[in-house]
Every structure is written in C-alpha cells, then in structure tokens.
Amino acid sequence: MTAVLEVTARALLRRVAIEQSEARVPSLAVTVVRDGAPAWFAARGAVEGAAPTRDTQYRIGSITKTMVATMVMRLRDEGALDLNDPIGKHVPATPVGEVTVAQLLSHTGGLTAEPPGPWWERTPGVTAEALTGSLDAETARHRPGRRFHYSNVGFALLGELVARHRGVGWDEAVTEEVLRPLGMNDTTPRPREPHARGYAVHPFADVLLPEPEHDAGAMAPAGQMWSTPADLARWAAFLAAGDARVLPAATLAEMREPAAVVEDGEVWSAGFGLGVQLLRHRGRRLAGHGGSMPGFLAVVWVDPADRTGVVCMANTTSGLRGSIATDLLDILDTHEPAIPAEWSPAAADPELLELTGPWYWGPAAYLLRLLPGRDLQLTPLGPHGRASRFAARADGTWLGLDGYYAGEVLRVVRRPDGTASHIDLNTFIFTRRPYDPAAPVPGGVEEGGWR
Predict the structure, then answer these.
(1) Which domain holds residue 277?
(2) Based on the domain organization, do 103 and 250 belong to the same domain?
(3) N or C: which end of the chain has fewer CB within 10 A?
(4) What is the pLDDT of residues 406-446, one digit of tens each?
(5) Cα 331 from chain centre
(6) ∠70-72-77 over CA atoms, to 5°?
C-alpha cells in the first residue's frame, strides 16, 4: 500500500472518526485509493468485538448494479446484444418489453422503483418467473426515455438477461467473468466470515436492532453482493481505468458518459451513466455508486482523471452522511494534491504538424492541437464555441470523442500538391483564414470580400 503522509493520514482519520461518532455508526471502514491502488485504510467501531479489517465483509447493496452493468457491457462488446435492443428481445413475457437495455442501465426506462409485494429488501426473494409474472401495466410509471427514475426492477431484468445469455445465474457469471479476473475473491452473493452484521441504530438512544438478511432471489442483481474494503478498492481501480480482462478502458469511458441528469442547475452536478452514478465535485468528475440495504451503507467514488477514489463501508441502516467520501477527497487534495506528469517532447508527423494552429469556421477562430500519437484537439480561441477531441483512424480521418462533435468524422482535404486546403467536419468547413474564397465554403463567399 502506498502510504499517505502522516499529516494527511491524521486529517483523514479525524474525518472518519467524526463520522463514526456523530452518525453513531456501529463500524465504519474506509479506503483511499490513489493512482489506482490503496493508499490509506482506517476503521472505527467494532465487528464482533474487534476493529474491522481490510478483509471484513459488508453488504454493498446497489454497488452490485455496477457489476451487473459491467457484465451487460461485456455481452454488448461480444455482439450478443445491442444497447438499443428492447429488453423483451432477451427476456420475453414482460409487460415492459419495449424498454431498451440502455434505458434500464441508465434508469430512464420509466419503470417502477420497487417490485410488487412486500418490501423486497427485508423479505425472502422470489424466482425470476414469479417476478416477471407479477409485473403489469402499473410497472411503467413514465414514458420510456422521458426522465430519470431509479428502478431496482430494471436491474432485476438485466440480471435475468445476463443469466439467459450465459446459461448460469447472473451471480455466477459476474463472479467468473468480472470478479475473479480482478482478484476480487472476497466479493460474494452471500456473506462469509468474517463479516459485519447489519444493524439499525435507535434514533433517540444508543441501542441497536439487528436487521434481517435474505437471499433476494430475482431482485438480487439490484443489491445482493457482499464485499470487503480490499476488494472494493480493486473495484474502484477498475471503474477508473478498466481492465482488458474484463472491459477495455473505452467501454468503461462509455459507461461513465452522462445518460441522465439527476441534479440540474447552471451545470449538472449529479447524473447517471450506463450502470454508474456520476458526480461533479470541485473540479472532479467522479464515477461510482452508492449502496443501501437494511443494516448496511456503502459508497465508491473514483476520479478517472487521476485514478483517485474513496471506498466507505458501514453496517448501519441510515445515518452515514453522503459527504464523507467527497470530504476525504478534499482532504487528500488539500494535503497532497496530485502532481502533474512530466512533459516531454514527442516525435510528430510533418503532415500533421502542418495542421496545427488557427483555423476558422466562418469568422469564428479555433485552434487545432496535435495530441500524443496522431489524435487532434479542436478548441475555440474565444470564450464561446465547440471543443472536441478526435481519435485518428486507419483511413486517415479522425473520429470525434466528446463534445458536440462526438461520433462525427473530421477529414483533412488536401490540394494536388499535398498541402492542406481545408477541414471538413461533418459539412462544417474550417479554413486557414476567415471565409477563405479559395475553399468550398457552403453558400459561397461574396466576391467583394470583407468591407
């Protein structure tokens, strides 16, 4: 474990101690991840009379959903499904069969949050057949795609999708294809010793009430898993950077793209991707998920930009403040801010080097930069405009990675002598001077020129 400085460790410990004491949490285990590896661990309170360790299991609730989503994306990458497929194509005989896989992953399918029947988190689960048979017209609360509406039922259907494609239970598929390759051998669908017991803390007295724990059956993909601080640190590292044995970095980046806004304002502050929650916090763009089950709370937040993250696990039904994870990130930034990587020069293709510098879309000035490799970045020189990065493709074009031009193709059009004439970006023509009359500007250029 890469240790943090002593002064940082004390500040982190103080914040954890305040949380455990003031929120009256029976036990709280916290790991700080830096550069994709555990950098600090602390625990307060007790599990069976002893301090929790990195190997103590806690129930992680809805963090399970990120693991199910990873399995769904593996199926997508294999070509077994398309994210635009209706769920009914893979899980027939459901009254919400028109909702797409992507909508279920991003909680935009409009499905009810909870299944019919008693509170599923505190009662034994039913089979997938019984669950789908209990769904009816009331399962759809909103028009698909209209808005974000968190749905545990949606992930139950995704778990069944995984099971039908793999021919084994969703948990077995996740264990063998996702957890084992990442070394997460202590993440299991049911608890193993040593594990924390779940408690409710009395609101007006310092006494505990044991919470029930059951196999959630068909609803298990929404929140069944148990894990340890050590394993969730590995999961945090995976969510930040990917792992070719499970999912490539590009697919993880796709999962982290905002698909739904949860909290909006001048800019969105909280959102949802494909199976992962998103949060903007003091310049960081965090990805992860929270988890809540009777007797347990957990959260994982990571910043893919510097592979820094926080894992918090507690055995209490309520009380843990949501700010604990971001407060710990703030402490780390205050005491040990990230050091930028060293810059060093790199070789550049002369033809690409020629492309760098100012370009004009009509009268609007842009700057084209050459990134490592053969990638490009287009940014406005003024306060307004559309910025995007572009990945080089084998055919000599570039594909937009983000911003307005995500997915659009950039082509460099050259003159007979090989020099660059203009850039064609999905019909937008960029020239070396504003409205260059020598370039094929759509609509033409007034012969009299500027006046």
Answers:
(1) 6-335
(2) yes
(3) C
(4) 999 999 999 999 999 999 999 999 999 999 999 999 999 99
(5) 23
(6) 90
